Amino acid sequence: xxxxxxxxxxxxxxxxxxxxxxxxxxxxxxxxxxxxxxxxxxxxxxxxxxxxxxxxxxxxxxxxxxxxxxxxxxxxxxxxxxxxxxxxxxxxxxxxxxxxxxxxxxxxxxxxxxxxxxxxxxxxxxxxxxxxxxxxxxxxxxxxxxxxxxxxxxxxxxxxxxxxxxxxxxxxxxxxxxxxxxxxxxxxxxxxxxxxxxxxxxxxxxxxxxxxxxxxxxxxxxxxxxxxxxxxxxxxxxxxxxxxxxxxxxxxxxxxxxxxxxxxxxxxxxxxxxxxxxxxxxxxxxxxxxxxxxxxxxxxxxxxxxxxxxxxxxxxxxxxxxxxxxxxxxxxxxxxxxxxxxxxxxxxxxxxxxxxxxxxxxxxxxxxxxxxxxxxxxxxxxxxxxxxxxxxxxxxxxxxxxxxxxxxxxxxxxxxxxxxxxxxxxxxxxxxxxxxxxxxxxxxxxxxxxxxxxxxxxxxxxxxxxxxxxxxxxxxxxxxxx
Length: 482
Hints:
Residues 1-22 form the signal peptide. Its cofactor is Zn(2+). Belongs to the peptidase M1 family. It is an enzyme of class 3 (hydrolase). Its EC number is 3.4.11.2. The structure is a single chain. By secondary structure, this protein is α+β, with helices and mostly antiparallel strands. The protein folds into two domains: 28-224, Immunoglobulin-like; 330-476, Neutral Protease Domain 2 (Neutral Protease, domain 2). It is 30% helix and 24% strand. The strands form seven sheets. Strands 1, 2, 4, 5, 8, 11, 13, 14 and 15 form a nine-stranded mixed sheet that branches. A hairpin with a 4-residue loop joins strand 9 and strand 10 (148-151). The relative contact order is 0.09.
């Protein structure tokens, strides 16, 4: 074989040197940070600071062309960098501006840089890949009637883009989405600039950026025949709703409720923590609603199916809104801390319904108490839930982490009183804003607000196989449980 140019010779030599570096190391292995419920999620050795994601969408029947750029820093010396990624094809990868060898190991994409990385080094990764929305039922891209949306909770962001897919590693996000003419793209955060004609005139490019760090499971990109509806909330907060254009007028009765919902939540826990909020209503049957940061995902049928009472729909809207504080701004350190997300969102959902006079908080908590032992047997205690069965992505989201966890908060309020409980709630979201926190942190802060160590009280509620007696309600105990 004859080399025809100096440039080609250099490229082949570079590829050969990368192959030799990779061959000198042990076989690549999938790694994780040891989460009890998702042991292979996340990757040790680095901290992601920012993602810059580019997607080029053609149709639901074709993979999106994508580029993922990651800015990070190393926490230890690294010969390889593991990223969580699957369901896409990688064309090329670079580490700190130099080509890097890449290979798959389980659901990891393993990069081998040309030279090892020291501890504390800047890390700039570029991966050129596809992102495939076709034929998947395990999260990530969700096919809608007119395009796509994301549903990455709990372990599916890496089915869309290479990442450190664990909520313990939050980062800032920029999204660059190119769509065909007539499609609208929306993502977390706010627009960086008006939508503009894509390079080469092929469609439109939309750019959004988050103003606060975000967990990968909360990323959202919507592409569709959408209407973007704008209004303002408390203190002129921009509210942006994204709905099927054909349903714009029909859905207005629900969209206009959000400013009052925001005011209601702020009265109880303090200022809304992000730069914008809104609901994304998708023509898809997901079986769940999702608190994607600044833009909560809802199924269209929640708002159009008349079988749902209006008070119930509003309470679900408040549930996802409450998550913006509990789960999004204050993110769980591990997936076992999920009760802090879902328990709090369920708590404020229940409080809202109670305020409407439709379903009293005490009745709901008593009914939860009667079922709590059954829930614990099936799904584990609230702060130590059982792992989901293989292939059942949302199996982790059982009643014990919803009403079962809200019941823990009710017991805590019974124990320490309403005033101390409300101080705790405000302090929790204020002191852990834009960060991560876990169950031990909550117990410690609750103890501080109560003025006494609550460990012995809270641990049986959070980790016990059976439900402790409810303070103030001796009549709830005994044979009435079902």
